[in-house]
Amino acid sequence: xxxxxxxxxxxxxxxxxxxxxxxxxxxxxxxxxxxxxxxxxxxxxxxxxxxxxxxxxxxxxxxxxxxxxxxxxxxxxxxxxxxxxxxxxxxxxxxxxxxxxxxxxxxxxxxxxxxxxxxxxxxxxxxxxxxxxxxxxxxxxxxxxxxxxxxxxxxxxxxxxxxxxxxxxxxxxxxxxxxxxxxxxxxxxxxxxxxxxxxxxxxxxxxxxxxxxxxxxxxxxxxxxxxxxxxxxx
Length: 234
Known about the structure:
Distance between the termini: 30 Å
Structural class: mainly alpha
Mean pLDDT: 76
Order of helices and strands: HHHHHHHH
Number of domains: 2
InterPro entries: DUF4294
Helix content: 55-70%
Low-confidence stretches: 18-28
Number of strands: 0
Oligomer: single chain
Number of helices: 8
Shape: globular
Pfam family, one: DUF4294
Protein name: DUF4294 domain-containing protein
Strand content: under 5%
């Protein structure tokens, strides 16, 4: 039953729905100063005097107080890497659906289109989502908030009704899962560990990067938790 409700939440949410090459015609004339040098990216007609690079993180070596702490991190890592693609897909579907609905004026046609998207998602991912464990489902709920800034509860409420959202949340709570769960790596140590796992996976090309809509700085979080007292991490 738990997996069914996780599936319903994910499907409902989905129903809602740097590098570039520099063209060869950028030439530095010997008589030009450095300020006269411009580049143009492939497919772009605008000339740029500088190139903005992506932010790069330097990761410290993972250190653990004991074997149990290391095991906890590795288990969390496995579960996070497993469910992140679903949260990323959900965020993408939200953007796609909202963009499409802006061009559909009649509410009846909007509902019809939304149902088609929901059916597509269900057929494509239902069997995989049913395999999620309780803790994987809770991490997925957290990551949905990370990617969208909205809880799974509010997404269901918007898609279905307030009563159904309440019912789903009440049922999920029996299995210690809250659809109202948010993601706060600045104040919850496990959430920071999830963010650390994601950033390392992005850097190692294990996951495709999708920026969080939340306002926090990973580098500052790392410094904060590195110097935090042990009791705050429990």
